[in-house]
Design goal:
Layout lengths: L7 E12 L12 E18 L4 E6 L7 E4 L9 H13 L8 H16 L7 E7 L9 H16 L6 H11 L10 H8 L4 E6 L4 E6 L5 E7 L7 H22 L11 E2 L1 H7 L1 H10 L1 H6 L5 E2 L1 H22 L8 H19 L6 H11 L4 E7 L6 E7 L3 H13 L6 H4 L2 E4 L1 E2 L3 E2 L2 E2 L2
Parallel strand pairs: 3-5
Antiparallel strand pairs: 1-2, 1-15, 2-5, 2-6, 2-14, 3-4, 6-7, 8-12, 8-13, 9-10, 11-12, 15-16
């Protein structure tokens, strides 16, 4: 039995990514993302410390079963390089399973154990209530990882910086099998009201830019759950491996993306780049064991990365221009960039689905819509639309009638539609932590 009578409360917002998708794990380009945290939609964790070393978790969603685990003893690793190598070694020693919701909490606690050692001596009870659709591309999994990471630090009286927590949480989430970057976690931790977060990955810099919303709305429409089973996890990790290891290694002999091979197998890559392949085996053990002869697309993945770099820069220029929103330049410009990004995600990165395309076709054909794109990791999830404020209600009604209705779904009841404005990031007892 969990008693939460004197619990503290953490809040993590849904992550809304305007532009810069599938580039936070890219290591060979000066990539960036433009995001914000939703003021209206969030995950809430009520928690309190335990006298023992157990973690007890329950959710208001009955689909997620309660769980319990015990915090094991672990020596701390003060050096960041030693810490990351030890974490990768720990993960590679385990055979990845389809992630359960408990996996994100376990990962956050396990990484904190590795970092802080005996200072993690106290467990906690928690209750989660989420207004972020699961497997929907708005980062419910990253929100849970951040919340668990914050809670285990707080109950053990460990001080931490929100950006540090975000980067730790990104690595902690690898526990669940994927090898993504830190965009979601940085947004959740560093978002500010009425501002977009600009994240540069090459130099790990974060900044903010005004995001006026008086005459537009950002609306997300949930299509279907992004399957986080083993097959999709491998597809995701193929793209990360290509971006992090294969492309940078191949570019060491050419500076021209158009000269990259269209495809390559891991067997071929091992013959050409044996040292880089060893890094790939350590970071992606499941992938290297099971897909050594499968053709991995290389050139088109790089073209997507390059395109996102350009699109994010253009979006920043639009937002920073004086009076851009008053003369409609930003609205139409951002809408066009959203459309371009979607085409790239669909054709070059191959992370869309037929159902997502059907949903987006309905959205983009509606009056008052400036642009729309797949948002998140893909293989399902949300479509983000930039909409004239007066057209939002009509658009929602149209999508309900043409997309959700035929499937006998009531979008507003199931929480499949989110209208978001830019709000604060991670907060404790209603006080922003940044």
């Amino acid at each position: 039995m969990i008693h939460l009578t004197s619990a503290s409360q953490l809040r993590a917002p849904a992550r809304i990514n305007i532009l810069g998708e599938h580039i936070d794990y890219v290591s060979y380009l000066p990539t960036a993302s433009l995001t914000f945290g939703s003021r209206e939609h969030a995950m809430i964790m009520s928690f309190h410390a335990r006298a023992d070393r157990e973690v007890h978790g329950i959710s208001t969603n009955e689909d997620y079963e309660p769980f319990v685990f015990t915090i094991e003893d672990q020596a701390s690793l003060a050096c960041s390089t030693e810490l990351e190598n030890a974490w990768l070694s720990h993960l590679s020693s385990q055979r990845a399973n389809a992630p359960q919701w408990a996996s994100y909490v376990r990962g956050a606690v396990a990484y904190a154990q590795l970092k802080y050692g005996s200072r993690i001596d106290c467990g906690f009870d928690f209750l989660v209530d989420s207004g972020i659709p699961a497997c929907g591309g708005a980062s419910s999994s990253s929100a849970l990882t951040v919340l668990a990471g914050a809670a285990v630090r707080l109950v053990n009286q460990i001080t931490w910086d929100p950006e540090e927590l975000a980067r730790d949480s990104a690595r902690a989430e690898w526990f669940s099998g994927t090898r993504g970057g830190a965009m979601d976690h940085l947004t959740i931790c560093l978002a500010r009201r009425d501002q977009a977060l600009y994240v540069r990955y090459a130099d790990a810099a974060c900044g903010h830019v005004a995001l006026p919303l008086s005459n537009v709305r950002w609306v997300t429409f949930f299509s279907h759950p992004a399957d986080k089973g083993r097959a999709v996890m491998l597809e995701y990790n193929k793209r990360v491996a290509v971006a992090q290891i294969i492309i940078p290694s191949l570019l060491s002999s050419t500076l021209d993306v158009d000269e990259l091979p269209e495809t390559i197998t891991l067997d071929e890559f091992a013959r050409e780049q044996p040292e880089a392949m060893e890094k790939c085996r350590q970071a992606f053990p499941e992938l290297t064991r099971e897909s050594p002869s499968q053709q991995l697309r290389v050139r088109d993945r790089a073209r997507h990365h390059l395109g996102e770099v350009v699109r994010v820069k253009k979006a920043l220029d639009l937002l920073r221009a004086p009076s851009a929103w008053e003369n409609d330049a930003a609205k139409y410009g951002l809408g066009e960039l959203l459309n371009e990004a979607h085409i790239s995600l669909r054709d070059l990165y191959e992370v869309s689905t037929n159902e997502v395309e059907h949903l987006r076709d309905i959205i983009i054909a509606s009056p008052g819509v400036y642009g729309a794109r797949l948002m998140g990791g893909g293989f399902g999830g949300n479509v983000l639309a930039l909409v004239e404020v007066g057209a939002a209600a009509e658009l929602i009604a149209r999508v309900q009638a043409e997309y959700y209705g035929p499937a006998r779904r009531q979008a507003m009841i199931e929480g499949a539609i989110m209208v978001s404005t830019a709000g604060h990031g991670l907060s404790l007892n209603n006080e922003p932590m940044v």
